[in-house]
Design goal:
4 helices, 3 domains, alpha+beta, 3 strands
Length: about 200
């Protein structure tokens, strides 16, 4: 006769396989979260947690748990080297959020150098990497870009990136998670890179 716990293990394995077939991790977790909220009497909250509405919580591809890294933009969009770029079109910006030309000078939409109140062309502003430079400067911790994962957002593949540090606290102020970080580091904040590859 099989042990009772072995029967329970087989039943649980069968149920989990059945639940997982045909749905994504995101939709499965969304359904589980909605079921928990509904069971607790939070029907209104459960409706808000529907998987297809997840983009509203943070940025496309990331349901908000860990906050965004500091950035001159509303969202921390980066280029392939980790420098800030404009959210709307991916053009490079300096640390003040100003559009810049190939030499790093601030320019207007037509590509003309910006001028100060005295009429003189403005000098270059700083342009530093969000994770490796801004986070250490603002929070006094070491940080490095490590983990990443991919999602389909607005018809293209988006790379979501963890900014990792040895800190036990994340940008939110609560306990940090391991996420996709390694070598003893934990997720401090997140950024994203749009690959322009269709999905």
């Amino acid at each position: 006769m099989p042990r009772p716990d072995a029967l329970l293990d087989r039943a649980a394995a069968g149920l989990s396989s059945e639940l997982a077939s045909g749905i994504t991790r995101r939709s499965f977790l969304g359904r589980v979260g909605a079921a928990v909220m509904t069971a607790m009497g939070g029907a209104t909250v459960a409706a808000a947690l529907a998987p297809e509405k997840a983009e509203a919580f943070h940025l496309c591809g990331h349901i908000w748990t860990t906050g965004s890294c500091p950035s001159p933009n509303p969202f921390p969009r980066i280029d392939r080297l980790g420098y800030p770029i404009r959210v709307s079109d991916g053009k490079p910006v300096d640390n003040l959020g100003r559009l810049i030309d190939g030499d790093g000078f601030p320019v207007n939409a037509a590509g003309e150098r910006l001028r100060g109140p005295d009429g003189e062309a403005l000098e270059r502003g700083p342009r530093t990497r969000i994770c490796e430079d801004w986070v250490p400067e603002q929070f006094g911790i070491s940080a490095v870009t490590q983990g990443s994962w991919y999602r389909c957002c607005n018809g293209q593949i988006r790379k979501l990136v963890d900014c990792c540090s040895p800190s036990r606290r994340r940008i939110n102020g609560d306990a940090s998670l391991t996420g996709y970080c390694y070598t003893g580091r934990r997720v401090f904040c997140v950024m994203y890179y749009d690959t322009h590859l269709p999905c």
